[in-house]
Specification:
Elements lengths: L1 E2 L6 E2 L1 E5 L3 H12 L3 E5 L3 H20 L5 H9 L1 E4 L10 E4 L5 H14 L5 E4 L6 H5 L8 E6 L8 E6 L5 H13 L3 E6 L6 H17 L5 H12 L5 H8 L1 H15 L8 H9 L15
Parallel strand pairs: 3-4, 3-6, 4-5, 6-7, 7-8, 9-10
Antiparallel strand pairs: 1-2, 8-9
Bound molecules: acetoacetyl-coenzyme A.
């Protein structure tokens, strides 16, 4: 349980919306750190798949001797699955990790605002959409904030914390303390398109795709250059496949529209891969193939 800045707000029960790779990772990290987590997905099959990934991740930690079996079993008891949003009514914090569509996220925030207690903090894991606009569909804009986790969530130590225009100091302090409580570092940023992480990362990925599109080099060569020459842990095209090419395109479109600057135009090759359904690792094909 986390007491927020000595104030009345305490957080022990967390709702997570979306059991994809981000939502599942977020649920895992909170459950590992002793929080009770309700993982919601509209698609029960997806929720079950998300749960299976968490179970496999915990088993891997046990195999490596980094967690004992009891702790892994206890972690799973803190985790419940639901396809009914109402089950989140008593969460003190809900973190939304639905697909990157503003209309969908607005609908979710409006519903959560109606069913959760007025004290519940509503956070979004959006990677580039305006937190202020999501807050505006609720009657609690001061309790809405961005918590942008990085993929893979269990491994990456950063949470980019985005303050909307109306986010209160208290909400910001509670979320910063909570981020520390799950062993991660909160870095505050203001609510501008792509925040900082994707404003810097995504144009690099887009440029790498342009290099392939223009025939400058193969995907393997582009990635090798960034791995060996810049010491990146993963080449930009492989990273794009891991993030999901649909997500990469959505972020580039948000940057392009938000800043109105042609330097953010998405590469046509990225667009056609998404049109083809080649979304990266999750569909088995992107710049590389996966089985
Ligand atoms: N879930 C849980 N743990 C995972 C994992 C996953 N999906 N993938 C890897 N790991 C763990 C491994 O088990 C391993 O743990 P140990 O150290 O305990 O053995 C550790 O991570 C390292 O894994 P590997 O040795 O298999 O591979 P690696 O050294 O290549 O590291 C990586 C993998 C951490 C993913 C590394 O390649 C990396 O840092 N890649 C870049 C990641 C990145 O840039 N993420 C940000 C993406 S942008 C984003 O998320 C925001 C957005 O809005 C788009």
């Amino acid at each position: 349980m986390l007491e927020g800045n000595g104030k009345a707000m305490s957080i022990s029960r967390i709702g997570v919306i979306g059991a994809g790779q981000m939502g599942g990772g977020i649920a895992q990290v909170f459950a590992v750190h002793g929080f009770s987590v309700v993982l919601y997905d509209i698609d029960a099959q997806l929720a079950a798949k998300g749960y299976a990934v968490i179970e496999a991740n915990l088993n891997r930690l046990v195999d490596k001797g980094r967690m004992n079996e009891e702790a892994a079993a206890l972690t799973l008891t803190r985790l419940s699955l639901t396809a009914d949003l109402e089950q989140l009514h008593d969460a003190e914090l809900v973190i939304e990790a639905a697909p990157e569509r503003l209309d969908l996220k607005k609908r979710i925030f409006a519903e959560l605002d109606m069913l959760c207690s007025p004290h519940t903090i509503l956070a979004t894991n959006t990677s580039s959409l305006p937190v202020t606009e999501l807050a505006a569909v609720t009657k609690r804009a001061h309790r809405v904030i961005g918590m942008h986790f990085m993929n893979p969530v269990p491994v990456m130590p950063l949470v980019e914390v985005i303050r909307g225009l109306a986010t209160s100091d208290e909400t910001f302090e509670i979320i910063t303390a909570l981020t520390q409580a799950i062993g991660k570092t909160a870095v505050p940023v203001r609510d501008f398109p792509g925040f900082v992480s994707n404003r810097v990362l995504m144009p690099m990925i887009n440029e790498a795709i342009y290099a392939v599109y223009e025939g400058v080099a193969t995907p393997e060569a582009v990635d090798q250059i960034m791995l060996l020459g810049m010491n990146h842990p993963m080449g930009p095209l492989k990273l794009a496949d891991f993030i999901g090419l649909d997500t990469c395109l959505a972020i580039m479109e948000t940057l392009h529209e938000g800043f109105g600057d042609s330097k953010y135009r998405p590469c046509p090759l990225l667009r056609s891969y998404v049109q083809a359904g080649w979304l990266g690792k999750k569909t088995g094909r992107g710049f590389y193939t996966y089985n």
